[in-house]
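@channel anyone free to eyeball this complex?
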Amino acid sequence: MSETPVGIVGFSGYSGAELVSLLSKHPHVEPILLEHRDSGDRPRPLGHSGPRRLPCSPDSIRSAGLAAVFFATPPEVSMQLAGPMLDAGAKVIDLSGAFRLGTTENYQRWYKESHTQPELLKEAVYGLPEFCRSRVAVARLISNPGCYPTAANLALKPLIEAGAIVREFGIVCDAKSGVSGAGRKASLKTSFCEVTENFSVYSIFDHRHVPEVLRTSGLDESEFSFTAQLIPIHRGILETIYFRASEKIASADDLLAIYRGRYASEPAPEPFVRLYPPGQVPDLQAVAHTNFCDIGFKYDEKTRRAVVISAIDNLVKGAAGQAIQNMNLALGYPETAGLL
Amino acid sequence: MSETPVGIVGFSGYSGAELVSLLSKHPHVEPILLEHRDSGDRPRPLGHSGPRRLPCSPDSIRSAGLAAVFFATPPEVSMQLAGPMLDAGAKVIDLSGAFRLGTTENYQRWYKESHTQPELLKEAVYGLPEFCRSRVAVARLISNPGCYPTAANLALKPLIEAGAIVREFGIVCDAKSGVSGAGRKASLKTSFCEVTENFSVYSIFDHRHVPEVLRTSGLDESEFSFTAQLIPIHRGILETIYFRASEKIASADDLLAIYRGRYASEPAPEPFVRLYPPGQVPDLQAVAHTNFCDIGFKYDEKTRRAVVISAIDNLVKGAAGQAIQNMNLALGYPETAGLL
Amino acid sequence: MSETPVGIVGFSGYSGAELVSLLSKHPHVEPILLEHRDSGDRPRPLGHSGPRRLPCSPDSIRSAGLAAVFFATPPEVSMQLAGPMLDAGAKVIDLSGAFRLGTTENYQRWYKESHTQPELLKEAVYGLPEFCRSRVAVARLISNPGCYPTAANLALKPLIEAGAIVREFGIVCDAKSGVSGAGRKASLKTSFCEVTENFSVYSIFDHRHVPEVLRTSGLDESEFSFTAQLIPIHRGILETIYFRASEKIASADDLLAIYRGRYASEPAPEPFVRLYPPGQVPDLQAVAHTNFCDIGFKYDEKTRRAVVISAIDNLVKGAAGQAIQNMNLALGYPETAGLL
Amino acid sequence: MSETPVGIVGFSGYSGAELVSLLSKHPHVEPILLEHRDSGDRPRPLGHSGPRRLPCSPDSIRSAGLAAVFFATPPEVSMQLAGPMLDAGAKVIDLSGAFRLGTTENYQRWYKESHTQPELLKEAVYGLPEFCRSRVAVARLISNPGCYPTAANLALKPLIEAGAIVREFGIVCDAKSGVSGAGRKASLKTSFCEVTENFSVYSIFDHRHVPEVLRTSGLDESEFSFTAQLIPIHRGILETIYFRASEKIASADDLLAIYRGRYASEPAPEPFVRLYPPGQVPDLQAVAHTNFCDIGFKYDEKTRRAVVISAIDNLVKGAAGQAIQNMNLALGYPETAGLL
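replying in thread with the prediction:
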């Protein structure tokens, strides 16, 4: 059976390289590298040329018949190139923040620059499949969620919808990420000697991913305290989420029931969300190199304090894997194709 | 000038080795290794025999005239040997949890075993010099604080005393530690391949260090949510502390003023607490191999949400360094001797 | 199509877990966990039970119809259980050193204990597919090569056979391995704090893997200087191999021609050996999580000094991946099934 | 007693920061930061301003009366500024490669650019104290050795002088370094995700430090095979050195006797070289944060093959520590001042 070609812009970054690696094993598509200012090539074994390469242009999309194009690029590149690619007939799945925030005002506030494609921003569908599956299936332009919001929203949204949280006490999301979340570029901040044997806080309250959580979860900014921190590892995000449970939650089983109702109910349990028995929580090795979001929690009945741990691989469920999940939905393949 | 001999029991563990290393550079004392089930010796260069060694016994203490003995041992060893060492005339500085919790009931609850030395427990002085300096100076038995409580209490106690925190909203202390905090022993949980490229949660609500924070800060258990997590690094503790500020705190400067009043006021500023300008926070490299506790914070005036970062080297201010600070007080040396 | 069941003894170690992970994605077989003193289970998500489990016994083999059994166990376990498994009708692929050294004398010398199964030792086929493919295909008992010898023999054997090396000058093999090579067990030597920010030598001349290289390559002990060293990483082996080239080797292209003749010649190039252009060499990230052995080199024509770099993932080509490659040959599947 | 001021140019790099840190604890000198294109400042605690700062100019040297100036800068900066600093009356200790190679031709060959200060090059004294102590003491311009050559020369020079090595068989020096050896600057090659879980070779035969070894040891280029490799750690160099011993060396004790004769003989044993019993070798943790060069070895009498391990902290004995050792000699302080 012939494979459908799909393109990747920004294939030499960490998310882009993960896309290429995962798509190379996908049963239904063939990845094509769309060359656009890529750099940092590594030595290549003789005779191992890797995927096909084409110039990054609408003509390439048309002549090669690409069904979809992934952008693993800075938002300004996505804004500039998404339109022409859509016009050339490809679905676009954008891994940058360009199309996540709904309004130009929101984008301006958090990304500190003007949005140049307000029409596309309006059209874009936020691709968190667990909550937007049907809209993703018919979208032309899919905005792939940020890594931190993916872990936060999957952990919080079912609880918020069920009224399980006393919101006025505030929700704390203490988030930790591996270094690949910062992208593949020369920077003193991510250089080895600055990161190893270290742990550092790089954003309190004002991370660009905060508005994605607010928009999806319905929380108010004052209710959600988010801190982003750097772990000296390559990949992985773990979020430790603290809240006071409402009176509906008499026991840990009540929390579990909410999660199971949302993620584990027959006939169609979520394929990429895994729950743990109360009191047990995932670590990052549990999700490394997988598209799973693992959720565990501990609940103190007496004081109604809860801690939820949400863990993902930032390059997979937090980027490339979720993008492929979205592509599968948009192109009509089984949602888990190439991801299990 | 001749140096006063002091002993170390448990010198081959990480805290014990740090004690030996720091004491070797101390201007007024000479470290003596007191041999008691030590193991894991490393290859030793020819002619570099290290400090003197003696059997770990009251006779050694007497005949060598040790002024103080440090215990970097499990609590059951400290309980067993502290009394005889005191009887032999040495001051005792215990780095274990044996004498930290004030009552045998409290010890039983958190350490899951009976306390065998209730009299010593009653006598012991908790050695957080910034808050108990004068009592340490006259103590026979000093209980050196745990690593996590040191960072938490130094960050929280001034704010609590000043009424700066809305306690009923709860204080979250998301704590992260390097692996040396687990001690030097063979264990699958701290083996390299389980820890590297990982980040894991090992205690939610029920860590043994929680009651030390409650006892020192005056917080109630329901007001203090503590999670202990493992960073893939050797040394360092960083705590991210979240709370809602009371109406007294109109701005970041109000918080800073409280900290400065407590730690930076003339004529005797605290030598081992460093404050950062509002909005700036320490990382772990800032405190590595030092006896400093670095405190920085960010404050959102509009919503009165605050995040405080408290960072220490768990083996220095969180163990050996603070123990030497206590020794300096107890033996009448300048408090900073051997520590700057 | 139904999948053929195969068993894994020792599935909770690092090589065993890698086998389970790789076999779970294999198109033709189903992995069965054979329970035998396994330990160290990690928290498991709800509803994710993992592969089937059976007791580790000949009855299991027979009743479940296992076509092959992998031993990722210490050699004494392999020696004890291989015979009964063979008698029960399974092919056996042993990842330990039990059957690698050909003679009981050799085993006694390097493993410091008696070999209890001399008949099986005689029968065992050494499973380095690039050099023993046809014998592996008909073997009952396959001895999977050690990690270090795999990298060394693939780099050296073609050159030795071609007479490219001045053997009397000696070959230096400076070998570095990630920590997973030491197995998954509690040990102070592999505990995080002993390994991180460190690099250590653990065997000079006398590593158990030396005789495997001698036996396969035909080198004499005096001609091969081998040092084993520990890198603070999870997985990967890189060997830096030094020798003086013979007069046959006028240029780097002559060395490349030897390697290409052996590994890259049509119609059947080796699927798991990759060569680099002269002057370029692989690093460990190039082979991580793959079954490739990557070989690159630099040659100084004037002095005829050569340095060859050979890199593998010790858990894949150095253990589980090569074991599956051998299984594919022994059970008649395509050699690369489940491995690309 | 007042402290003598000394200056540091390039104080924000890793070697420069190590100089500042070590000099701050030195009993006889006060470090002054000489500002010259420094960058990458980290958050600084309130009231902790660090050492005095002056503009990097001859006037500063004169008016502040600096006795010595350290250059922890690229060679072109050292070449440009060393002369004016000497003219201003300071001794200069240069940590770059600018003045190490003796001739402009040698410099041109290995550094690929012209040397602009041939007179200074001629004047410069190579500061390996163990072999050039008396010349350092009277030098105006001291060229501090490279990190790799320090470890290599201390291990090899005594053996070569004693005729203990069969040179025509070749000496292999397989060298591994932590990442700080590459300096503190933004670079993709030293970014965390490229280095962690990796081990890579970055120079075979052609490293700039090779000629320093040849010049000091007297070896010919064809006799010395040097490979430089990157370990995922912050600091440390370990070199594994292979050679065939001459007939003079009947046993390991003969090798040890040579080393002891050179480094451990009374009345003035070398303070910074430590030897290990035959068969025992150092690892990097043994020398971290120290000015020691630790040397151990293993000898196979039957085949006369020897492996020597030489370990240093590249930022201390390989840079800042050795520079201070040289300063101590040049300014007449005890050689070990500030370094033990």
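from a first look: The longest helix of chain B spans residues 316-331.
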